[in-house]
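Researcher: Structure for this, please.
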Amino acid sequence: MSSEVSIIGAGNLTVSLLNGIRKIKHTYKINVIDINKKKRSIAKKFNINFFSSYTNVLCKSDLIILMVKPNNYKDVIDSINPFISDRSIVLSFMAGISTEKIKNQIDVNVPVVRCMTNITISNDKSYIFYFVKSFNKHINIKINKFFNKFSKLKKCKSEEEIDKITALYGSGPAYYVYFNQIIRDSFTAMGYKEKEAIDYTNDLITGSANIIKDNKRSDDLIEKIASKGGTTQAALLELNNNKLNNIISKSIIKAYKKSKNILKK
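Model: Predicted structure, token format:
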């Protein structure tokens, strides 16, 4: 008999997760529940079950994965409460919502695990970071059995670490895409066609990422690229003079603080 996994919410991160899952062989029965009926098209795409209302499939689920917006967490949990059984483990990928808040909202005494990953899980074995207060072998086996097939699992020591990971890793792809867009716009500003700008920029980012993998020390790598008195050094000096590193660091700290106070406007 195959195990069941139910995912609440059919947003971008769920789609990324499903992309990662379909690349591996598994025997899990995957259910996705989203009240937006227009999301039903993902059922055929990923060969899963889709429901637009909360049903008894949750009672049979070994893992219930919450992938909804944090400000909706109370309404969502209230809606699934009648269907949660004590056999399930609830895993939350909601930014900033503590395990305590989730447990207080759930009627049944079930393990609650806070998790974080990012959209790159659709293409590669990205990390899934997780934290659980009352850890035991049963929880460990179930989580590892499912996630280790298509991701790299990393246990966090504290819930605060999940908040940090949210800002650094969960939001991380957006920082790289933002920089990619700046370089792409620079290509077009210098007269290159948009198609060329996209191709050259993507090649640049991908190639640079591969080089970074092979060089543990970024300072040494920059030194190899930036000749003294050359064009690269001129650009880097301008970035340093404008304190780009401080801007990026402050932005990540802002994201971290938001994660800790996600429900505050």
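Researcher: Any notable elements?
Model: The chain has a mean pLDDT of 93. The chain is about 50% helix and 15% strand.
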